[in-house]
Write a structure and sequence with these properties.
The complex is a heterodimer of chains A (145) and B (139). Chain A is mainly alpha-helical. Chain B has one domain. Classes of the chains: A mainly alpha (145), B mainly alpha (139).
């Protein structure tokens, strides 16, 4: 089977530029705050609140939440396509929430920060969630439907 | 200062997610769909982020404390165990089903998208279930 590239949707430069911004954000958070910018860990840590460990988490999350508003000041916010219906979104959300906490990280903590640290543990996690993501999309798009 | 810097990092991270296309679940699923018409864009996101991240870590690893004060909180766990792999597999399955991982979901919540709001509520519920299970184990 020959692989087909979706040239119509391929956006190498914006994606590379966005990746560089994400890299700058994680690097600055690491050197300034001494923290890993792992989103699931930052959010999940709020469910186990400890004194002095709350403000920075909330501040980071408010930054994420405010990003679309700042982006929209400069240019039109891109309208996303979310194919999943509500029941599927609930199931997916539960899996992502429980899985990222059980596995100690997500695309940011393991995928970006962990691979930047050349951590074998994060590489294993990244390979596992990528493989599961590929397999799930294959099952949904090419087996079930 | 720590909170201000955390806010700025979150904001920049979120802008990066929007610029890169990761805040669009259809684009994420286009990347995960190897057998369909594959959109390799998100590999470029990872490459860009990791190249800068490596430089950041090279600075961070030499320091005993953060520039704004306080300890460096770098992960210490090294073992590749069942929890890590199973948890990551479960996360990947959820990621493939909806096309949302935690960062883009929170950004899309901030954009006021109903579906992202529902996803984030379910995601926090999943995290709470994990905390309940952990608390029960500790007793």
């Amino acid at each position: 089977m020959r692989m087909q590239i979706d040239w119509a949707h391929f956006t190498p430069w914006p994606s590379l530029a966005g990746g560089i911004l994400i890299g700058i954000a994680t690097a600055m958070f690491l050197v300034l705050n001494g923290r890993i910018a792992g989103i699931s860990g930052i959010l999940g840590g709020l469910l186990r609140p400890a004194a002095g460990d709350i403000a920075w988490r909330v501040a980071f999350l408010v930054g994420l939440l405010a990003a679309p508003a700042l982006y929209a000041l400069v240019t039109r916010y891109p309208s996303p396509t979310i194919e999943a219906g509500y029941p599927l979104l609930v199931l997916a959300g539960l899996l992502v929430g429980a899985g990222t906490r059980y596995g100690s990280g997500c695309t940011s903590g393991h995928g970006v920060c962990g691979l930047s640290r050349l951590s074998p543990r994060s590489l294993a996690a990244t390979l596992a969630f990528m493989a599961a993501g590929f397999a799930t999309v294959f099952a949904v798009r090419h087996v079930i439907s | 200062m720590h909170a201000t810097s955390a806010f700025a990092a979150g904001l920049l991270f979120g802008i990066g997610l929007i610029v890169s296309g990761m805040s669009d679940p259809a684009k994420v699923i286009g990347f995960l769909d190897l057998a369909g018409r594959w959109d390799p864009s998100l590999a470029f996101v990872m490459v860009g982020a990791i190249l800068v991240g490596i430089a950041g870590y090279a600075v961070a690893r030499k320091r005993a404390s953060a520039f704004l004060g306080g300890a460096m909180h770098l992960p210490t766990a090294r073992q590749i165990d069942r929890r890590l792999v199973l948890g990551s597999l479960v996360f990947g399955a959820g990621w493939g089903l909806a096309g949302f991982c935690p960062g883009p979901a929170i950004v899309s919540f901030g954009a006021g998208q109903d579906k992202a709001v529902v996803f984030v509520i379910a995601m926090v519920a999943g995290m709470a279930l994990f905390e309940l299970a952990e608390a029960r184990k500790r007793r």
